[in-house]
Amino acid sequence: MGIVFNSEKRVFKLDSANASYLCGVADEEGFLGHIYFGKKVPDTDLTYLLRINEPPFVPSQNNRERLSFYDTFPMEYPTAGIGDYRESCLRIRTKSGHEVCHLLYESHEIRQGKEALPGLPATFGTQEECSTLKITMADKAAGLKVILSYTVFEKLDVIARSVKIVNASDDDITLTRALSVCLELDGTDYDILSLHGSWSRERRIQRHAVRLGTYSTGSVRGESSHQEHPFLAVTSKDATEDMGEVYGLNFVYSGNFTAQVQGTQFDNTRVTMGIHPDHFSWLLTPGQEFQTPEVIMVYSCEGIGGMTRTFHDLYRNHLIRSPYKNKKRPILINNWEATYFDFNTEKLLSIAKEASKLGIEMLVMDDGWFGKRNLDNCALGDWTVNEEKLPGGLKRLVDEVNKLGMKFGIWFEPEMISPDSDLYRAHPDWAIQVPGKTPTMGREQYVLDFSRREILDYVYESVAKVLRSANIEYVKWDMNRSLSDLGSFGLSPERQSEFSHRYVLGLYEIQERLIQEFPNLLLENCSGGGARFDAGMLFYSPQIWCSDNMDAVERLTIQQGTAMVYPLSAMGAHVSDCPNHVVGRNTPFETRGYVALAGTFGYELDVTKISEEDRDLIPEQVAMYHKYNDLVRTGDYYRIAGYGENHLYDAYMVVAKDKKEALVTYIQVLARPNYHSRRIRLKGLSENLNYRIEETGQILSGSTLMNAGIQIENLQGDFKGKLIHVLAE
Ligand code: DGJ
After folding, report:
1. 643 phi/psi in degrees, rounded to 5
2. How many angstroms does the Cα of residue 479 sit away from the middle of ligand 1?
3. Which is the closest atom of ligand 1 to the Cα of 411?
4. Comparing C-alpha atoms, which of 422, 420, 425, 411 is closest to residue 480?
5. Ligand 1 centre from 444 Cα, in Å?
6. pLDDT for 364-411, tens place per residue?
7. How far is the CA of 59 from the centre of ligand 1 (A)?
8. Which part of the chain is CATH 3.20.20.70?
9. Which listed residue (478, 551, 606, 636) is catalytic?
């Protein structure tokens, strides 16, 4: 069992392979303090770290300075209003209008395994793989119970945390802030790693020092967003890819979030994460409870790369549920950049015919197949096939595609409604809006009110009806604008601020229904590219579209940032045509293939129109995908060099779990005048095995490959790439 309770000292200790997490009850009053999170230690009595014997400290011994205690003590779950003036996790408003919340330890339980979180995505594990501690805290005066839940994945150095808040009083209580996690670290000598971006520039890595005051990132867009990301890591100053301590936190949630790192007056660092308190409140009537989404905390003493590999293993084995999670995905061809809205059955079939000859396995029909949608300004919500474009309907097209030996997939944007749609004309109140105000349009569309049961049911049936009508094996679920004008005709005034979270719960519910009715469906989430690439969505779909930017160079940075947390098996990546539709750059077709190989792999171009030279390369790329995908999908990922940092080249590798095989991807982004070759050192191999470099036949020990490295010749030109495949002898 990875959890022990030292009953004499009232200390909880959670152990995994390399890490220990300790928190404890500080005194008879019941303050719960954070004691330690870091490299594994054997002792349970580390209460001296709480400094309770350093007077004047514990209120029971020094009540006169109670306020100082509140403002100093490393609270396990800090609350607002009592005198802890740092960032808090919980703020309430009682019937009388007061905001003070004072939580003290009441009881706890420890058990094997992990319970699901109702209505929310969450990691899972068997009784052998994980154990859970639940600590019940109470504010007796307010009649509030708060259950802090910690699941330790014993082999993975992971702790999954969430909180349940129960109104045990006879009056209403409103939550105005309900975060999932607080982590107190000793000292401020740390760096923060976070991910930021924009449309077509998702998840760029940022690193900077922890300072006094609060660093804050978050989203209030109703989705995790292109701009910010529900992840941050606090690292030791000396942390590199391969060394140093790293605490990674990732929110398993797809809506508004906040993540904060606060350097405090006494040189401690407080990290908090959870649902963004803006546009949030939750009314709990007597007996009702609120469950926060979970935060995954990863500890690594093997640098940033160690953290990454732990997240990958956790998500591949304990979050993604799809039957596809351990399978090679069909190589798809998507018609978006090939045709945009200008397509019909004939055109799609001509693409499919050519694609099937080249070894491509699935045709995906993107936006524009329904209602009167010939542009992006109408018809969202009208999920009936446009028979002018697809005469004979969907079934005819799908059957023809199937006859070619290909699977068929389809695009939807179920959360949206165009003002110019039959659905809007029938139900203008279904769009999110504030009465009396014209809602703000984005891409000429509004967002449907997913907090309302009848709308969820209607949307579900519209999508499911299409899926039932033909042999559709893949769905791309898109979402092309953020939420605004928050308001629902289904909510009472005192519940309007529940809308953002209720929207996300509605989204989760409808996707859950979808995968229950269509268990073999391959679902790919997408949001204008990668605005909702988060752990929450991975619970429903094994892959997520990474970015609308398929330029091979830009993708290196986008995929590096994404892979900081999420497994390569989940990253939607395609080869598109050049000049690239977003940045206008020309890169070799081979390089685009190497870069897309680090994700799910597919094509997004008109295969009937590209040059013969490029087309001839597709069968080779298809073979390359089949040769390497098992390794890429299941192996350990190591970053060697990032083009984002050195502005010259990029290199990463994937090593099989048994260390018998590895694949290095090297991209020479910019040719450098007057240079011959470049040395790179491989990672993650076995020191004691000999490896053959497939391309040259050279045999070298793992130790040599990792310490002395290999020389990569000048590839003569910009944007050139190569793969290096090494196999144990
Ligand atoms: C945004 C997606 O990211 C694209 O791939 C494409 O599906 C368009 N939406 C369609 O509107």
Report:
1. -60, -35
2. 8
3. 7
4. 411
5. 14
6. 999 999 999 999 999 999 999 999 999 999 999 999 999 999 999 999
7. 58
8. 332-635
9. 478
Q: Where are the beta strands (DSSP E) in 210-304?
A: 213-219, 228-236, 246-251, 257-263, 268-275, 282-284, 289-291, 295-300
Question: Mean per-residue pLDDT for 565-581?
Answer: 98
Residue 56 has pLDDT above 60, yes or no: no
Q: Is 548 a catalytic residue?
A: yes
CATH code 2.60.40.3760 for 3-318 = no
Q: Read off φ and ψ for residue 286, nearest 5 degrees.
A: -50, 130
Place 653 in a pLDDT band, splitting at 50, 70 and 90: very high
Q: Which of 420, 449, 534, 548 is catalytic?
A: 548
Range(s) within the chain of domains with CATH label 2.60.40.1180: 640-728
Question: 518 C-alpha to center of ligand 1: Å?
Answer: 23
Whether the link from the prior residue into 56 is cis, omega within 30° of 0, is yes
Of the candidates 644, 658, 726, 645, the residue with the CA atom closest to the CA atom of residue 692: 726
pLDDT of residue 90: 98
Give the architecture (CATH level 2) of 640-728: Sandwich (2.60)
Which ligand 1 atom lies nearest to the CA of residue 604? 5
* pLDDT of the residue at 1: 64
* Nearest CA residue ID for atom 2, ligand 1: 528
Q: Nearest 5°: CA angle at 501, between 498 and 504?
A: 145
Choose among 589, 591, 723: nearest CA to 652.
723
Percent of the chain with pLDDT over 70: 100
Which is more confidently placed, 246 or 154? 246
163-198: per-residue pLDDT in tens? 999 999 999 999 999 999 999 999 999 999 999 999
Note if 43 is an active site residue. no
**Percentage of the residues of the chain whose pLDDT score is greater than 90:** 97
CATH architecture of 332-635: Alpha-Beta Barrel (3.20)
Q: For residue 226, how far is its CA from the centre of ligand 1 (angstroms)?
A: 14
Pocket of ligand 1 (CB under 6 A): 336, 366-367, 411, 478, 480, 526, 528-529, 545, 548
Cβ atoms of 230 and 534 within 8 Å: the answer is: yes
Is the pTM of the predicted complex or chain greater than 0.90? yes
Res. 706: pLDDT tops 80: yes
Q: Which atom of ligand 1 is nearest to the CA of 545?
A: 3
Mutate to test the pocket of ligand 1, among 375, 413, 526, 558 (most ligand atoms within 8 A of CB): 526
